[in-house]
Amino acid sequence: MTTTVAAEAPPLRVERLTLAQGLARAADGDRPFAALSYGAGSDSSWVSGVAARVLLDKEPVVDLWHAGTPVQSGTTGVVRWRTDGHWLLGVVDLDEDAFGEDLTALSRRAYRNLFEAMKLAGCPHLLRIWNYLPRINADGGGMERYRQFNAGRQQAFLEAGQAAFEGAPAACALGVHEGALCVRFLAGRIPPVPVENPRQVSAYHYPADYGPRSPTFSRAALAALGGGQVALFISGTASIVGHKSVHAGDVQAQLAETLVNLRSVIEAANQRTSARFSLERSDPVVYVRHPADAPGIRAQLVQALGARSRFIRHAVFLEADICRSDLLVEIEAHATEAGELTD
């Protein structure tokens, strides 16, 4: 079966620039549909930021999303969103103290409102989600905060009739040192094709050792963007084989395992589309637990992928805690190539 975007849907396009370049372009009149910045926030209505420190003396970067016009913006509960009627990009920033709820209740609230916004916009299919929560590995009162987050997230998926297991969207969940619970999401009218990594147990099938509710995401997702283009969204990927973390305390070995996992999930994705994706031609975000590890991580990536690869040229390195306390590095990425979905 070949999946295509309806003829009337405007193509969705993404490009990565420095934040300064993106803001300058918008000031000249070329304002995008919406944007996600890494390493700096913005008080602009069309840019939402990730409050994590950029490493290696690099500039903050921004992913500019271009879609159709006119663009409408609004608020549904705690969700702020922008849509052209075919694509929807929304953001949530929830201060835990302001709501007086634990993280389970707060994440459930965020996702419940997220699904309400999708329904109102007529964009019922999640393509990609970015989650950032403060103190992700800390105790939340008898349960790790990441596990609390997973419990509330999965409950909201189930209540909304969304795919919480097979068919879940691509996603990441990282820890920031302070600030609000942040959720950013991209949705559309056409369902994505979920992709799993044959080297790993699907996250939604993790055993109860990892908490009462499993994480709700697929390892990657393919999405038809229109205009003959297919996107690959790779979820946050780390040094996990099966369902177990491997190479504890060894950041070089963890990074090498992460690269094997990234190539494995890309190979699985390429079996479900005529587009040809490669790690070297992707736009990554590299999350590093200990900033002192960042120079070595970059050097290892350069050796593995080439200094002139798109991956290295477009990579942004952020200080962040990984969802498991024994993991030291995590990489997410996206790429767009010409082709069609074949499954």
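Above is the first protein from milestone M3; the second protein from the same milestone is given next.
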Amino acid sequence: MGSLSFDYSGETVIVTGGSSGIGRATALAFGRSGANVVVADVREKPKDPHASVPTHRVIREGGGEAEYVECDVADPDDVAAVVEAARELGGVDVMVNNAGLFVGESLVDLSPENLDRIVDVNVKGTFYGTQAAARDMRERDEGGVVLNTASISSRFAQHGQVQYDATKAAIAMITRGAALELAPDIRVNAVAPGQIATEFSEGGTESTQDRAGDEGFVKPVPLDRAGFPEDLAPAFCYLASEEASYVTGELLYVDGGWGAF
């Protein structure tokens, strides 16, 4: 089968949550495509035990341009600082709001503190990132692209994670609402992953890559495997490209067919 290639030379891409998992794979993909990449995360070191070199350093070692900015996306001042760092590279052209948090607790047991935290990171973080990027693009009188990380949980409820499902549904509406408000100069879309083998839970020690062959993890996926971060990165690159110039307000599901039944 054929393959796609992208050229982002001279463009600046911010990836929140870019130190690990989907964010890392996406940042590396943009870096290989020639973009100046700003990796924004609360931690520089990857969570994935199979990776040791920080994302921005991998890009630099490959001949690309990248930097790391410490950022808690729940803090609008932190997000604004990341966008300001992108200004030094010419201003943000693509904003990938990928940082996210999973809290798997039952509805009756979920604490107010954990509810606040997951809403702060997933919902407010996506909103602040979209807002800050749009302001920068408008102030520079430039178009641009905002991409959010949604989920199959944006549409489908799953047992034991009502709080997570609710935040991902909110991201879907931020995506659609922002697409309406920011058109025609700024496009806003989201990638909606399915069951992706990556370290995700806050404070977790087991990488779900180790579960990729587990029958309970992959059984409901028609393509008969868990996804990997590298399966998501091309979707972000496509939606940010001119090839997707007539696409806005959409969620692109990359789930191995999970949502087909």
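Note on the second protein: Residues 201-211 have pLDDT under 50 and may be disordered.
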